[in-house]
Amino acid sequence: MKKAYLFPGQGAQFVGMGKDLYESSHIARELFEQANEILGFRITDLMFEGSDEDLRQTKVTQPAIFLHSVILAKTLGEEFRPDMTAGHSLGEFSALVAAGALPFEDGLKLVYKRALAMQKACEAEPSTMAAVLALPDEKVEEICASIDEVVVPANYNCPGQIVISGSLNGVELACEKMKEAGAKRALLLKVGGAFHSPLMEPARLELREAIEETTFSVPVCPVYQNVSTIGESDPAVIKANLVDQLTSPVKWTQSVQNMIADGATEFVELGPGNVLQGLISKINKEVSVSGRQ
């Protein structure tokens, strides 16, 4: 019986996130204030009392979710004894910091660098994403490959739920074909751009330099990464996967299945929202699922 801690990605944010932590824990308060200093602006003000529009900005969303998730893990103290960790997209940085592969400060700096690089790539070329429901993975892959535009599977969230990513025209064409093929829904998402697609290549190159300059350590437990889907402990492998993550799909279904195959029976989500808990239950109904916000 093993316990896995999970960390959510972009989209889990909400106004007021982390405020209770800040007010109830001196450890949390110190880390939040440290983050304000590192970032050069008071992200806590935007998290606790900002607007939805503030939090939807990639440069705010990503560090905000990272902070909430990592600080939750830090405040658990001795209770936080993971046998494995994993994070969905952005959440992978939280999982690495929580598992000791990265110091808090370095993790935050990389997340902010990632957010700025992704926002720049989004502004350079209009693009989008869409959720596809109730269509086999193979069919989604086949349809994406048949379109003469940039459009690829981006998130394998759970059986019957895939997010595709690419150019505006490519994603719209793919959605039409998905519906014709029997998809229950093919819905455009309100996102800044085509995350986890080839259109993020400029951001990947920018982030690669920052990751290569950062020192990673052997984590206290395996971290199941989005790119490889298996538990990783080698710092060099972790860094390479983290670089490739921006232009590669988030293989969440496969990662969770591998964690279960490796003995995980209890999953705990740390961070805003409960999206990952819902996905775990759809991947395997036999395991225990809970969360902390």
Strand arrangement, major sheet: 8-7-2-1-9-10
In CATH, the topology of the largest domain is named Malonyl-Coenzyme A Acyl Carrier Protein, domain 2
Question: For the report, how would you describe the main beta sheet?
Answer: 6 strands, mixed
**Strand content bin:** 15-25%
Mean pLDDT: 96
Structure description:
The protein contains 13 helices and ten strands. It is of the alpha/beta class and 293 residues long. The chain has two domains: 2-123 and 198-292, Malonyl-Coenzyme A Acyl Carrier Protein, domain 2, CATH 3.40.366.10; 127-188, Alpha-Beta Plaits. It has a six-stranded mixed beta sheet, sandwiched between helices. The longest helix is centred in the middle third of the chain and has 21 residues, at 104-124. The chain is globular.
